[in-house]
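User: Predict the complex.
Assistant: Input components as received:
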Amino acid sequence: MSENTINLLPRSAVKSVPRRKFLNLLRALTVIAVSFLFITSLSAFFVGRVVSPDAERKQEQKVLADFSPLGDSMAKLLFTHDRLLEIGKILNTRTSLDAKIGIIQSFVPQAAGIDSLRIDKTSVEITVSSASLRRIDEFLANLSGALDRGNTIRAITIQGVGYNGKGEYFVSAKMTLL
Amino acid sequence: MKNPFLSTQKLLFWYFLYKDYLVFGSVVAICVLIFLIFVPAQVRNILLLNEQANDIKQKVKVLSANVDVLSGIDSVLLNNQLTLAHGALPSEKYFNGILQSVSQASSKAGVDVGDFTIEIGDLSLSNTEIQPLSSIAINITVNGDIEGVKRFLKELSHIFPLSEVISVQTGGLGGSRIEVLFYFKPYPLSTLPNTTSVKPLSEKERSSLNVLSSFQNSSASAF
């Protein structure tokens, strides 16, 4: 405090001025805190009411009531989807071995016969016999041609060519199919 | 030794000296405490309610769409479609249907079926929720020439239940050996939730049904 200032208050009162200021500040703070708490509680209450799912629950009950008689149809439709998904896969992926046998038969000349045939999805083992070596040669040429065209056969292994002692020549071949 | 009376006096002195501070300070402290306890819990609750409301909205949306789709479906047509699909792909090992289809294919192809073996396999269903596509393997002996075998294979591919010929061995004594897989798929074990989104049959599925309709239906029975 400046020396020129004249303070007429008693000494105890001078000391109480900052104390009163602090007390006023504390009072203000109390009012603010209580108001803030009140406003926050009120806001939380109203926000809680706004976001409450009660209205949605009522709507759900209504839709469920509409849906109830259709439950059986839904199950049937889902089962049909499930069946048809697998059926589509089977129809698209299953191999028609009768068609493949037909293709293999087309390589065998008229005057030659199939002695044995083993066929699966990817391979064929065939033994063809004929009284004429020319037909055997023709069969091999047909296989070779099919291999060159590359639309049926991927690989051929000739397992044996011989004479069966009954007047016929034979050839055994193993093929890997495309 | 401390005098408790003096201590109480001291406390009272401090209390009266700072009484105003104590009251207001306590109110502020309690407000802060309530705020810290109350507000996070309330915020969590509001978020939870909001999440629940969104879930229910989503469920209602799916249910409404399902009601629209299902209301537009002809139940008689749906029954026929399911019967057809079920006949093509049964839900269980349908031995009677398999034997009938073999018999029918052989009679149409004009070949005799000799002996055959069926690999029954495990009769219990898988415990998984989504049941996989399964099959029963059958080895059939067909007495006939290679053309007869081809006819038999062709007929078999157009008869229910759907099957796939895995291998054919012909020539030699004892007829031709044919290994066939007959497919089946069990229905799901668990019940389907009504919030599963349903769609009407797609063009691809209708096309599959048309293919199935063209096949001879030897085993479809009322579902």
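Chain A has a mean pLDDT of 88.
Let me know if you want any component modeled separately.
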